[in-house]
Amino acid sequence: MRVLEHSKRSVSVDDIREAQGRISGETIRTPLVLGAAASDRAGCPVYLKLENFQRTGSFKVRGALNTVMSVTPGERAKGLICASSGNHGLGVAYAARRFGSQCTVVLPENPNPLKRSFLQKLGAHIVEFGTNSDMQWEKVQQLSHEYGYTQVHPFSDPEIIAGQGTIGLEILEDLAEVDEIYVPIGGGGLISGIALAIKELNPQVRVYGVEPERSNAIAESVREGKPVVLPRVETIADGLAAKTTGSLNLSIIRRCLDEIILVSDWDILRATLFLLEQGKVLVEPSAAASFAGLLANSKREGRVVAVLSGGNVTLDQLSQLQSRLEGATSGV
Question: What architecture (CATH level 2) is domain 12-58+157-325?
Answer without folding.
Answer: 3-Layer(aba) Sandwich (3.40)
